[in-house]
Design goal:
It is built from six helices and no strands. It is mostly helical. The protein is elongated, with a radius of gyration of 18 Å. The termini are far apart. The mean pLDDT is 81.
């Protein structure tokens, strides 16, 4: 009985540490994104939320999302002068909260569900959700 209680406590502490670290990392990354003007001030909280959910999804969620965000930000800024001449340029001051949620809410929700499925040891659901990402 005592071993089962300690095992449960260890598991809860482990999950709590994972949640705290994921939250801290997402706050630091959102602040960095604000400083380099990838996002606007109103997008900080949604960015923290999306980043937090992605980080909880695990390694299979993090790399594809980073590649997507990095490449989309770079491509938005690429050839801005030409895009401005054509009238098709996006605002290069950073993504606002609507853009962050539009781009990040679905993949972050899938990542979070994949992370939950992984921790619940539901391998088939984890594989399905990881593939969807």
């Amino acid at each position: 009985m005592h071993g089962a209680i300690m095992s449960t406590i260890d598991m809860v502490v482990t999950y709590l540490i994972i949640v705290i670290v994921a939250l801290m990392i997402s706050i630091v990354l959102a602040y960095a994104a604000l400083r380099i003007r990838v996002i606007t001030r109103d997008a900080v909280i949604p960015s923290v939320l999306v980043g937090f959910m992605i980080l909880l999804g695990g390694p299979s969620s993090i790399l594809p999302f980073i590649v997507f965000l990095g490449s989309s930000s770079a491509l938005t800024k690429l050839g801005v002068e030409k895009k401005e001449e054509l009238g098709t340029a996006e605002d290069v001051k950073g993504r606002n909260w609507k853009q962050v949620l539009a781009v990040g809410l679905v993949p972050s929700t899938l990542a979070l569900l994949a992370g939950v499925a992984y921790f619940a040891r539901d391998v088939s659901m984890y594989q399905l959700l990881s593939t969807a990402l």
